[in-house]
Amino acid sequence: MKYDTLIAAAKAARLQAYAPYSKFQVGAAIEADDGMIFTGCNVENLSFGLTVCAERVAINTAVAAGKRAFRKLVVFADSSEPVTPCGACRQVLVEFCDELEVCSINLAGNEHHTTLSVLLPRAKAGILG
Ligand code: THU
């Protein structure tokens, strides 16, 4: 499947970002294994540590809708280089995604493609077993 729909969803989600502190708006769109798409934006807080990234909002929304497996993620931001999920988001994503394609794209249209296993290798090795 092409990324056009996911990219459009992430771009639209970015416009909902609540980012009065960083002024850095991020949108994310994740595709579940049944093709459904869920979106998220970053939601900041005066207590900075409570800020939630767009990627976690998207996947948590999907999980709340009953989804448990995912194929693709798009992260959309206005940065000189495409943005990849932060370490915390990688760990949350890997809970539900053994293999996830990650596309990062900026307003200029520069795309970067990778996978979650590249971004977070050996994520579950040795834990609880
Ligand atoms: N942010 C995201 O939402 N996703 C990322 O992948 C990188 C960072 C947000 C968190 C914070 O609101 C702002 O961008 C600056 O770090």
Helix/strand layout:
Elements: H1 4-14, E1 26-32, E2 37-41, H2 54-64, E3 70-77, H3 87-94, E4 101-106, E5 111-115, H4 116-119
Parallel strand pairs: 3-4
Antiparallel strand pairs: 1-2, 1-3, 4-5
Tell me what the structure shows.
The structure is a single chain. The chain has 129 residues and is an alpha+beta fold. It contains four helices and five strands; from the N terminus they run αββαβαββα. It is globular, with a radius of gyration of 14 Å. The mean pLDDT is 96. Bound molecules: tetrahydrodeoxyuridine. Tetrahydrodeoxyuridine (THU) binds next to α2.
Biggest beta sheet summary: 5 strands, mixed
Overall residue-averaged pLDDT value: 96
**Low-confidence blocks of residues:** none
Identify the bound ligands.
Answer: tetrahydrodeoxyuridine
Give me the Rg, rounded.
Answer: 14 Å
Output the structural class: alpha+beta
Number of strands: 5
Number of helices, counting only DSSP H or I runs of 4 residues or more: 4
List keywords for this structure.
129 residues, globular, binds tetrahydrodeoxyuridine, single chain, alpha+beta
